[in-house]
Amino acid sequence: MVRNPERRAALLDAAIGVLAEEGARGLTFRAVDTRAGVPVGTASNYFTNREELLAQASVRTYERFMPARAEWDNVLSGPRDRAKLAEIMRATVTRLAADPNVYLAALELQLEATRRPELRADLTARVRADLDANIAFHEEAGMPGGRDTVLVLYLALNWLVTEYLTLPGVLASEGGLEELATRVVNRIDLEG
């Protein structure tokens, strides 16, 4: 296999674009090569088969979801109260929605995982580890609420971003993405 990390990342970014725009059925080596603007056959030199391409695209979506260092530093500065939690959740949903292709590709990968047990196992492990890390970080940072708070925010805000990107008209009259994230935080029980 070829070992050019920049080219590999560009191919995975192209795969994310294909997944978001054409779905998992449209994800072929040729489609990735075309989208990346590289010669036909390039993707097949980097990934042994379609299953590996899907698995690595799912890893790349998580890399692209990660917040910048400044966002992490902001979490650890100032008071640990409901207002701070709302600020963090607004930043999170804004980051997730900022590049719709990444979020939509992640949804496509989850749908594809219902048909591919190996992809399901990989995604389940990655998402569970991410949720556990978020719970641990929330608790270690001394944010209000606990495990249940993180779980409720995870469920509500993931669906908020999904709805915002896939059916924006449903919530348009209810407020913008950041306003809705704030409303979620303001209505959860931080004492339980």
From TrEMBL:
Gene3D superfamilies: Tetracycline Repressor, domain 2. Residues 28-47 bind DNA. Keywords: DNA-binding. PROSITE patterns: HTH_TETR_2 (PS50977). GO terms for molecular function: DNA-binding transcription factor activity; transcription cis-regulatory region binding. Residues 5-65 form the HTH tetR-type domain. It holds the Pfam family TetR_C_31. It comes from the Bacteria. PANTHER family: HTH-TYPE TRANSCRIPTIONAL REGULATOR RUTR, TRANSCRIPTIONAL REGULATORY PROTEIN (PROBABLY DEOR-FAMILY)-RELATED. This is DNA-binding transcriptional regulator YbjK.
